[in-house]
From TrEMBL, chain A:
<feature type="transmembrane region" description="Helical">
    <location>
        <begin position="204"/>
        <end position="226"/>
    </location>
</feature>
<keyword id="KW-0472">Membrane</keyword>
<feature type="domain" description="ABC transmembrane type-1">
    <location>
        <begin position="70"/>
        <end position="282"/>
    </location>
</feature>
<comment type="subunit">
    <text>The complex is composed of two ATP-binding proteins (UgpC), two transmembrane proteins (UgpA and UgpE) and a solute-binding protein (UgpB).</text>
</comment>
<keyword id="KW-1003">Cell membrane</keyword>
<keyword id="KW-0813">Transport</keyword>
<protein>
    <recommendedName>
        <fullName>sn-glycerol-3-phosphate transport system permease protein UgpA</fullName>
    </recommendedName>
</protein>
<dbReference type="InterPro" id="IPR035906">
    <property type="entry name" value="MetI-like_sf"/>
</dbReference>
<feature type="transmembrane region" description="Helical">
    <location>
        <begin position="266"/>
        <end position="286"/>
    </location>
</feature>
From TrEMBL, chain B:
<comment type="similarity">
    <text>Belongs to the ABC transporter superfamily.</text>
</comment>
<dbReference type="Pfam" id="PF17850">
    <property type="entry name" value="CysA_C_terminal"/>
</dbReference>
<protein>
    <submittedName>
        <fullName>sn-glycerol-3-phosphate ABC transporter ATP-binding protein UgpC</fullName>
    </submittedName>
</protein>
<dbReference type="InterPro" id="IPR027417">
    <property type="entry name" value="P-loop_NTPase"/>
</dbReference>
<dbReference type="GO" id="GO:0016887">
    <property type="term" value="F:ATP hydrolysis activity"/>
</dbReference>
<dbReference type="InterPro" id="IPR017871">
    <property type="entry name" value="ABC_transporter-like_CS"/>
</dbReference>
<dbReference type="InterPro" id="IPR015855">
    <property type="entry name" value="ABC_transpr_MalK-like"/>
</dbReference>
<keyword id="KW-0472">Membrane</keyword>
<keyword id="KW-1278">Translocase</keyword>
Length: 293, 345
């Protein structure tokens, strides 16, 4: 096979320059800057900085607020990931039963789900609205005086609820297509081999969904850790008060509201290491492959 | 082991298409029945109704002495081999073969013994720990067979199990499957559109066309006494010669040639197998040969009999040339069909 090539050695480099420049300016440079800042104590008004070594880090790990936020992040991430994966899987399996083969219906349903995510986040918040949110009214029937942004538990509940709500459609679509890609005849063979529907699910369907499931697990963890910033910001509105926050949001609050750039940089370095670990973990497992054929 | 009986079994798909018109027949205990017909004639639909993978729109299906219309596939005591084998990609060969047994709460040591036995029978012992993706097509085919036989079902169902294999392997597996079925004595329904498979494997052949059963009979009956012009032209390669003829005064004539006898005066279709026409310098038929197909063991002569296309099968030792030759028809080798309906007279 003939490979297309460039006549000049510098030409491909030239084409890569814009991309590399963007990555450098918006990723490596700020990252390096953050690493550097994490070793300094910044003057809040920008009049200089003092080298303080690891003091920002030790202060961070000693801070009760930081540890509280770290624990919340762990619980938040686990709950959002587990809930949005399992609910989406359940919905996909149910929907797959109904619409297997019915192509138009399937496509329509997919479209609705594909359009929904950005809208869903906003709608989710409206549901909890303090003055006219239907969910607030609904739980009030059971004597739950729901106080968004005031009560710690209630706020955490709303954050998790909306985050799950927003992620469901994406997971649903992936699980759906994962289910649809399982050959019909394999399911039929299972139908002959095993009379129990739940047995067939756990023995055949679920393992064959593992590649999809694993991919979603990683993306959902990443989502819960980082992409929920917008939702949390909409709820907390920059006023931390007694509210729960994830570590990512705390970086922003401490750095830009509290003007503690050094401390906030130290926090973001920790998060960078977390992302790095997650990425390595993902590549390792993808290499060990959970896919067949 | 079981007898299978269909009573006016019919399939209408949700879109209103009638894939199988009401069909009634019985398959005897231990019999090997082949369902054959062109693509889209409803063979798979019929088989899948027997398997329980497709609902039966009306009629009654019995396996053994049970009506099984509403019985789940897993409870019909059947095993099925699919065209693409349908192996579980995440399970090893041993797990694939044993999966059905595991679900029947059979103790693990018995499963292991049965899997081992089936693997030995199918020459799969060295592959038991592999995943299906690490096997060749022929080996996958064997695993699919293994999965079917370990269950000791009362009925085997096959849907074109050999069509993904190359010609050589297909011939070999054909013989192996047939021998295995003989040995186990399990009633079997085998779907194919390959008429060589149908002829060689079947105790009885069911020929389908457009959702209708055209004929049920032994391979020899179907071949030598086709029930319709469709069967005559579908079975056999090359197919039966179908010539326009006319019966008058007790004689059946094709062009100027006297071929057979028939009581009524009517037009009809005359069917003669290519090998039932033999070159004979004193024969009554004059055939103009235009093309000779060399097949090694024998040759096919294509030509015309008074403007009607005709094919003759001759042995390799017989000298042939293009141009006019004389031939005779073997006695009792002529089939007569109604011109309108195509039905055998
Ligand atoms: N789910 C379905 N809905 C509607 N029509 C269907 C469906 N499945 C099959 N058919 C139609 O029913 C007819 C018979 O299909 P079937 O699969 O039984 O054919 P077949 O004889 O097995 O053909 P092949 O040799 O190509 O496998 C075909 O015309 C097909 O288009
Ligand atoms: Mg078919």
């Amino acid at each position: 096979m003939k490979r297309a090539g460039f006549s000049h050695r510098w030409l491909p480099i030239l084409f890569l320059v814009p991309q590399l420049a963007i990555i450098f300016v918006f990723f490596y440079w700020p990252a390096l800057h953050a690493i550097r800042s994490s070793f300094f104590l910044q003057d809040p008004f920008g009049f200089g900085e003092n080298f303080v070594g690891l003091k920002n880090y030790t202060a961070m790990f000693k801070s009760a607020a930081y540890m509280r936020s770290a624990w919340f992040t762990v619980i938040f991430t686990v709950l959002v990931t587990v809930l949005s994966l399992s609910i989406a899987l359940l919905l996909a399996v149910k929907a797959d039963k109904v619409i297997r083969g019915a192509k138009t219906y399937r496509t329509l349903l997919m479209w609705a789900y594909a359009v929904a995510p950005p809208v869903a986040g906003v709608i989710g918040l409206v549901l909890f609205d303090q003055s006219w949110g239907p969910i607030k009214d609904f739980v009030a029937l059971f004597g739950w005086d729901f106080r968004l942004g005031v009560n710690y538990f209630d706020t955490a509940f709303a954050m998790i609820f909306v985050s799950v709500w927003k992620q469901l459609p994406v997971n649903f679509i992936f699980f759906m297509s994962g289910l649809q890609s399982i050959p019909k005849s394999v399911r039929e063979a299972a139908l002959i081999d095993n009379r129990s529907a739940s047995g067939r699910f756990w023995d055949v369907t679920f393992p064959l969904l593992a590649p999809t499931g694993f991919f979603l697990l990683i993306t959902n963890i990443t989502y819960a850790l980082f992409d929920t910033f917008g939702i949390i910001d909409t709820i907390v509105k920059g006023k931390p008060g007694n509210n729960p926050m994830t570590l990512v949001y705390k970086v922003y609050v401490d750095g830009f509201r509290g003007n503690d750039l050094g401390g906030s940089s130290a926090q973001s370095v920790v998060l960078m290491i977390l992302v790095l670990a997650l990425t390595v973990f993902q590549f390792r497992l993808v290499e060990r492959r959970i896919h067949y054929t | 082991m079981a007898q299978v009986t269909l009573n006016n079994v019919r399939k209408v798909y949700p879109n209103g298409f009638e894939a199988v018109k009401p069909a009634s027949f019985a398959i005897n205990d231990g019999e090997f029945v082949v369902l054959v017909g062109p693509s889209g004639c409803g063979k798979s639909t019929m088989l899948r109704m027997i398997a329980g993978l497709e609902d039966i729109s009306s009629g009654e299906l019995n396996i053994g002495d049970r009506v099984v219309n509403d019985v789940d596939p897993a409870d019909r005591d059947i095993a099925m081999v699919f065209q693409n084998y349908a192996l579980y990609p995440h399970m090893t060969v041993a797990k694939n073969i044993g999966y059905g047994l595991k679900n029947r709460k059979i103790p693990a040591d018995q499963i292991a013994a049965k899997v081992q036995e089936a693997a030995t029978m199918l020459n799969l012992t060295e592959y038991l720990d592999r995943k299906p993706s690490q096997l060749s097509g022929g080996q996958r085919q064997r695993v699919a067979m293994g999965r079917a036989i370990v269950r000791d079902p009362s009925l085997f169902l096959f849907d074109e199990p050999l069509s993904n294999l190359d010609a050589k392997l297909r011939n070999q597996m054909r013989i192996e499957i047939k021998a295995l079925q003989r040995r186990l004595g399990v009633t079997s329904v085998y779907v194919t559109h390959d008429q060589v498979e149908a002829m060689t494997m079947a105790d009885r052949i069911i020929v389908m066309n457009g959702g209708v059963i055209e004929q049920i009979g032994t391979p020899s009956e179907v071949y030598h006494s086709p029930a319709s012009t469709f069967v005559a032209s579908f079975m056999g390669a090359p197919p039966m010669n179908l010539l326009n003829g006319h019966a008058a005064g007790g004689r059946v004539r094709v062009g100027d040639h006297d071929l057979h006898h028939h009581d009524q005066d009517r037009p009809l279709t005359v069917g003669i197998r290519p090998e039932d026409i033999v070159p004979d310098t004193t024969g009554p038929l004059q055939i103009n040969v235009s093309l000779i197909e060399e097949l090694g063991a024998h040759r096919l002569l294509h030509g015309t009999l008074q403007d009607q296309a005709i094919t003759i099968h001759v042995g390799k030792d017989h000298p042939v040339t293009t141009g006019p030759i004389y031939a005779a028809v073997k006695p009792n080798a002529v089939s007569l069909f109604d011109v309108e309906s195509g039905m055998r007279l």
